[in-house]
Every structure is written in structure tokens, then in C-alpha cells.
Amino acid sequence: GVQLAESGGGVVEAGGSLRLSCSASTYTAFSRVLMTWVRKAPGKDLEWVSIIDAAGETTTYSDSVKGRFTMSRDNDKSMLYLQMNDLKTDDSAVYYCATDLMGTGRGQGAQVTVSA
Question: What is the pLDDT of residues 79-95, one digit of tens each?
Fold first, then answer.
């Protein structure tokens, strides 16, 4: 089965940056499938953040993060990344890497807290 492990979360002031990582070392199909980042804030539904194609050539972002977040992948290392810049308090959530927009296969998540 899919085993994903997110890392890199933390507490940052508004306007700051964080870089999340996701290890997919045991996911044998990783280099052949699209991957996503999704997030879950308290009291809110799971929200998709970004999508990247299998080759890492095409990315799509939700309107809420477009222009501030950058998703990338390294298929040789089976790693996924999310560079988050100009963070806002509304970005506070648990972030998950996943295999689709519904969050399938997500790991334990990385907590991101943005303080005002």
C-alpha cells in the first residue's frame, strides 16, 4: 500500500516561509502518478492545495495559494515538496501529501501554524 510521510511543518509569523517535504520511498508507483498536497484546518473541510503531474512538469494550485506556494518533486529520491512563501494566518492547517484530491493515502501530516 501507499505509505507517505510528511515533514517540515512548524510555527512561523505571517509573511514567513516554510518548506514541507513528503517521503514516498515505499510507494513503488510514485514516479508514474500525479501527487497532491491537501490541508485540513480545524472546523473546515479537507482542501486541496496543489497537484503535480508524474514528470513534475505541470503544477496546478488552488486560488488560495496561487503565486505563493510552489510544488515540486524529485522522482529519483521519491520525494515531494511544497515551498510556502508569504504565509497567511488562513494557511494554518495540517498539510498532507496524497495521491488524489480527496487525500487518499495521506500520512500523519505536518502541522503548519502561522501567527499574526
Answer: 999 999 999 999 999 99
| Rounded Cα–Cα distance for residues 6 and 4 (Å) | 7
How far is CA 5 from each of CA 13, 44, 64, rounded to the nearest angstrom? 25, 22, 24
Q: Which amino acid is at 87?
A: L
Q: How far apart are CA 107 and CA 21, in angstroms?
A: 12
pLDDT at 1 over 90: no
- Mean pLDDT value of segment 21-31: 94
Length of the chain: 116
Three-state DSSP state, 115: strand
Q: Which one, of 72, 62, 67, lies nearest residue 93 by Cα?
A: 62
